[in-house]
Amino acid sequence: MSPRQRQAPRSHVIYTIAIIGFIYTLHLVIPMYSNSSFLSLFADEKTVGLIYMMGAALTVLGFLVAPAIIRRIGNYRTSMWFVALQAVLFYGLMTASSPYIIALLFAVEMASASILGLCLDIFLEVYTEGTKVGSVRGLYNSVLNASWTIGPLIGTMLISGTGNYRSTYIAGFAMLLPLAYLMHKNFPRFRDPNYMHLSPLQLVKHVSHNRDWVGLFFANFILQTFYAWMVVYSPIYLHNVMNFSWESIGLILTIMLLPFPLLQYPLGALADRRGEKGMMALGIGIMSVFTILLSFMTWNSVPVWALGLFLTRVGAAITEVMMETYFFKTVSPRDSAALGLFRVTRPLAYFFAPLITVVGLMYTTDAYLFAVVGAISLVALIPILSIKDAK
Q1: Which of 39, 179, 216, 290 is deepest in the core (most CB within 10 A)?
Q2: CATH code matching the domain that covers 11-384, chosen among 3.90.950.20, 3.90.350.10, 1.20.1250.20, 1.10.443.10
Q3: Element (H, E) at 230
Q4: Taking Cα atoms as reference points, which of 286, 275, 331 lies closest to residue 309?
């Protein structure tokens, strides 16, 4: 692809976007690991999976229409509208009593949050200097993943002793207030790039002509499937099968997620100097092997499970930051549609992840589902080994 035209690097703006990203992610993560348990109060396990699939379908649709919205009203206005929509949806989850309304609110919230994340990607992409993509993406991912580290701990502390899952939505709602303030303060005069206008068919052709993108998108879909399955299934498994308390689960999840804020910034800087392909492959290998080994962990021990899950996330953290760096080195800020398509792999994973559980349980036990997910993750090595390092 042709070299990207960048605005002059503005480190303070990048740090501001990172802070905004931290708050945005925290408002999602506080309830995220208890979402499936909250929904299970109103629906059985299969229905919970269908609700996630409905949310994924709306998210895919949202990513297809979001570039047109952003092109028409601008990235700043789009982001502010979706912050407001998030507030409405969280208020509904805090107060609604009808299972049907709760399911609808949850599905729409999945889509709304994803589009807001796309807006933040565009802000960051415009202000990133071309030679420092790995460093900036590593920093951004590290800050966002700090939210992923503390969010589950906050969420489980709010639930512990009360069983009130709605308190996590109250906390998430509160995070939207500083989020809206910071975005309004810093970006009302944001200058949008001249976004490319592509129909869905043109977009597919545009992406498919880049063989490296095709391989990267497929590998990212597998990574997102790993995340989607773990988010929905692992808390239920730890609570219902391994009989851990929510306090213990919060501690396990916090330790599990430490590799993301600790590793991704230095790894992103390393990618700027040495390339991404080899590290991507290494990350997939580590993630897959240790996920398979979880199937054989029968000890009801917080340190053992925390260590096992931590090692899977070492691999995932390496893979994620290398994929992000690779993609954002090769995409233009004008190409919001391709950026949206890259993010579509996340909601699409929520279609596939529940099928792993449904089909897997026909042939094996709960514990060996980890082995199934680990084996599926290894498939990502095929497209990763076929791509060329970004320049």
Answers
A1: 216
A2: 1.20.1250.20
A3: helix 211-236
A4: 286
What is this structure's pTM? 0.80
Structure tokens at 30: 């506080």
Amino acid letter, residue 194: N
- In angstroms, rounded to a whole number, what is the distance separating the alpha carbons of residues 213 and 217? 6
20-41 pLDDT per residue, tens:
999 999 999 888 877 877 888 8
277-294 vs 211-236: helix axis angle to the nearest 10? 30
What are the extents of the domains in the chain?
11-384
Q: CA of 82: how far to CAs of 32, 34, 75, 168, 192, in Å?
A: 19, 23, 11, 20, 17
In 3D space, the residue among 368, 194, 356 whose CA is nearest the CA of residue 294 turns out to be 368
Instruction: Calculate helix-pair angle for 302-330, 133-159, nearest 10 degrees.
Output: 140
Total residues belonging to the chain: 391
Q: Are 229 and 374 in contact (CB under 8 A)?
A: no
Q: For residue range 138-170, list pLDDT tens digits in order.
A: 889 889 888 888 887 888 888 876 667 888 999
Angle between helices 277-294 and 259-274 (to 10 degrees): 150
For residues 331 and 318, give the distance between their C-alpha atoms in angstroms, rounded to a whole number.
20
Give the per-residue pLDDT at 336. 66
Are the C-beta atoms of 271 and 138 separated by less than 8 Å? Answer: yes
- Between 83-92, 100-109, 201-210, 351-360, the lowest mean confidence (pLDDT) is in 201-210
Three-class DSSP category at 183: helix
Residue 183 has pLDDT above 90, yes or no: yes
**Distance between terminal CA atoms of the chain?**
11
Is residue 331 within a helix (H) or strand (E), and if so which, with residue range? none
